[in-house]
Amino acid sequence: MDRPPAMFIADSLGLDFLNSVATPVDTPVDWLGDGDGLIDWLAQAGLVPADELDALKARARPGALDEVAGEARALREWFRGFVREHAGQPLGPAALQELGPLNNLLEQDEMFSRIEPRSGDSHHGLALRTTRRWQSSRSLLLPIGEAMAKFVCEEDFSDVKACEGHHCTMLFADHTRRRARRWCIMAVCGNRAKQAAHRSRLKSRQ
User: Fold this and answer.
1) What is the 3-state secondary structure (H, E, C) of the chain?
2) pLDDT tens-digit readout, 152-182
């Protein structure tokens, strides 16, 4: 299935995961609709190294990636309910009782540290880096779980908003100075709202 590039507009990967199903321009798109879509979304999000994605795809049994994509969609909709319930107010300790599915996923992670060549700066040497063992197709859910957990622990839920665009389902974290952001993308939903308001004003004058 041909999909447009994934949209990362939420200012938080945890929320961008929720926005992996959306209606950006009239037609609904689910970037996690199948295994190939999940692989593409993870690559665009930068959550899994490209070589690991290629290796997992090559050794996955038939249908395995589609099954994991189904799990990802179920996880997404569970998390959407949690975020929508708590958006607009600080997240309190009592919310921990609702996060069992996420903690269960995080407990399956196999992360480890190792010494690797340092890169990306003018100093050549060694660096301690953290990585994970990508042992099965289901391990593709682990970096998603980590992004969700970071969002839960680091984001002020008072800043979580839903786009005000007509029929838009996108969520975002409003980090603007005055917390005045209203749209997922001003060029799409914002402009549509302006055009609708303009037509309404013209009609009222007739």
Assistant:
1) CCCCCCCCCCCCHHHHHHCCEEEEECEEEECCCCHHHHHHHHHHHCCCCHHHHHHHHHHCCCCHHHHHHHHHHHHHHHHHHHHHHHCCCCCCHHHHHHCHHHHHHHCCCCEEEEEEECCCCCCCCEEEEEEECCCCHHHHHHHHHHHHHHHHHHCCHHHEEECCCCCCCCEEECCCCCCCCCCCCHHHHHHHHHHHHHHHHHHHHC
2) 999 999 999 999 888 888 999 999 999 999 9
